[in-house]
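Bumping my old thread because nobody answered last time. Still need a sequence for this structure:
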């Protein structure tokens, strides 16, 4: 008994040292992971993360002792559940979480596990031929029938809801359908760094969505700074461009001639003149010109006729004189 007690004491001391000496500490669940697979994960994480599996009671004792040297590190005890390991690293908690998540792989259910999310079977053909498999699937609650010499799932069915226990019958049916509802790997439940505790919900961020939010925030802040004319190294070029554009628009609208606006003002005047000319009726002016031309032509013809009459009269007078 004394040897057992000494062994436990040494384990607690080792855990306390790990909790105090490493900048980042995480509580990780290792339920259902075979020992050989854990060894492979340790090898994969070597140089980034150290993993120590221990009994929950000893980890709780170590956290309590370590809290005297690192403020609030004992908050990690709140997320201890199931078979637990302590992960220590010198990388930030978010990168640590990402490294640990990368160890996860899909795995079949054996029965008795808690569903991590809704387990759903979709309608469609199966690779099975008619036989006892139909009864096995129906026993698990899967709506399977025989159609065209094949076993077919008729409609979509939620077999197990998130948080519910997976029965043995359902587990067997899912395995035969090659549906792997579980994830096996190192499951970070919480992490600690510099006096701050990070719950899993905080660590599990969507990087793509986060980057999109950052880009949107940067764009909106730039738009606001330009709108309120806030000068900075980033906004000055845009503000100068905006000021130049505003000044040019004002000069053009106020018809102020400068070496930069005169060409635009002339173009503007020409456009306005053309617009005004297009509104003046063309038909009356053309009719008036035609009438003037006709009257001129008639006057010209009248003059020519008069001259011809006068010429004829002179000729007649000349002929009479000769007689």
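Sorry it took so long. Here it is:
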């Amino acid at each position: 008994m004394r040897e057992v007690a000494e062994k436990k004491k040494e384990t607690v001391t080792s855990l306390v040292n790990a909790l105090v000496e490493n900048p980042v500490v995480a509580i990780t669940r290792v339920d259902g992971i075979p020992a050989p697979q854990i060894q492979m994960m340790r090898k994969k994480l070597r140089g980034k993360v150290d993993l120590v599996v221990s009994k929950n009671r000893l980890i709780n004792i170590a956290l309590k002792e370590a809290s005297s040297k690192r403020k609030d590190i004992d908050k990690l005890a709140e997320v201890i559940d199931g078979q637990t390991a302590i992960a220590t690293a010198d990388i930030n908690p978010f990168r640590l979480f990402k490294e640990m998540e990368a160890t996860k792989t899909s795995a079949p259910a054996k029965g008795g596990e808690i569903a991590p999310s809704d387990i759903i079977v979709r309608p469609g053909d199966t690779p099975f031929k008619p036989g006892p498999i139909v009864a096995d699937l129906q026993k698990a609650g899967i709506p399977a029938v025989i159609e065209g010499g094949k076993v077919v799932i008729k409609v979509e069915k939620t077999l197990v809801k998130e948080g519910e226990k997976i029965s043995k019958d359902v587990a067997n049916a899912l395995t035969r359908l090659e549906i792997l509802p579980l994830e096996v790997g190192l499951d970070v439940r919480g992490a600690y760094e510099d006096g701050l505790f990070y719950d899993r919900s905080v660590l599990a961020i969507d990087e793509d969505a986060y980057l999109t939010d950052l880009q949107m925030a940067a764009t909106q802040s730039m738009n606001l700074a330009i709108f309120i004319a806030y000068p900075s190294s980033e906004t000055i070029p845009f503000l100068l461009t905006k000021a130049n554009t505003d000044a040019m628009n004002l000069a053009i609208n106020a018809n102020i001639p400068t070496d930069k606006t005169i060409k635009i003002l002339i173009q503007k005047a020409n456009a306005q003149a053309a617009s005004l000319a297009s509104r003046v009726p063309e038909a009356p002016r053309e009719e008036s010109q035609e009438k003037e031309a006709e009257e001129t032509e008639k006057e010209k013809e009248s003059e020519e006729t008069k001259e011809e009459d006068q010429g004829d009269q002179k000729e007649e007078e000349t002929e009479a004189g000769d007689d």
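The longest helix spans residues 283-322. Let me know if any region looks off to you.
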